[in-house]
């Protein structure tokens, strides 16, 4: 049976004095009582991570590639049957899909960007024609016209017992209205779609624009989120804020 050779380690104290040890692993005790394990004989390089019993540790892999150069990568093992913080369970339904309607991948990227850190979410996005959009707006908002986006938070936005960190709800968007608004407001169609998805997901998390202060805070957050996605300020022209 072959035996892995120990790595030579030099421990250096505050005065610069070195102590030579042979080791395959290092166990570091940090000031806050937490531990960090360094696996020196990993086949791909030096592996740094938290103890395995803490579950799903993130690991930093460092590998020398040439003189004065280091390759660094991050690995993460998600536990089975357990939600990872920030996980989005997204369903996209297309009752109507005219040209220019975004695909599921784009919609997911926008929704994920709008979720607060540490929150899981189960969201259904339904794309509908003007007749369905008008019907839903009339039934639930008492407005007899097709609108751009409607948001429906599960349980009226109140957290379910044991699910306080889970966002649940539906978004309904109408491509015909979205396209018409983008043209009238001089916006790129994709950018307007991105804005409406972000706007709707924020509503599902409890954000609103019922008064001036709420509207200012929500619009500022939307603008920042869209900028992080590479889209311009949706309120630059101060026209046609979302109706949801």
Mean pLDDT: 79
As residue ranges, the low-confidence spans are: 52-57, 65-85
- Estimated helix fraction: 25-40%
Q: Which strand order spans the largest sheet, edge to edge or round the barrel?
A: 3-4-5-6-7
Q: What distance lies between the first and last C-alpha atoms, to the nearest angstrom?
A: 68 Å
- What proportion of the residues form beta strands (DSSP E)? 25-35%
Secondary structure class reads alpha+beta
- Note the main sheet: 5 strands, antiparallel
Globular, elongated, flat, extended or rod-shaped: what is the shape?
Answer: elongated
Order of helix and strand elements from N to C terminus: EEEEEEEEHEHEEHHH
Total number of helices: 5
Radius of gyration: 25 Å
Q: What is the total tally of β strands?
A: 11
Structure, explained:
The protein is α+β, with helices and mostly antiparallel strands and 244 residues long. It is 27% helix and 29% strand. The chain contains five helices and eleven strands, in the order ββββββββαβαββααα. The longest helix is centred in the last third of the chain and has 17 residues, at 212-228.
Features:
244 residues; alpha+beta; five-stranded antiparallel sheet; four-stranded mixed sheet; 5 helices; 27% helix; elongated
